[in-house]
Amino acid sequence: MSEDRGAANSGLAAAAPVDAGQFREAMSRVAGAVHIVTTAGSAGLGGITASAVTSITVEPPMMLFCINKTSPSATRIMENGVFCINTLAAADQPLSDIFAGRTDQHLEERFASGAWTKLVTGAPVLSTALAAFDCRFIEAKEVMTHLIVIGVVEAVAIVPEGTALLYGHRKYRTLLLD
Question: What pTM value is reported for the model?
Answer without folding.
Answer: 0.89
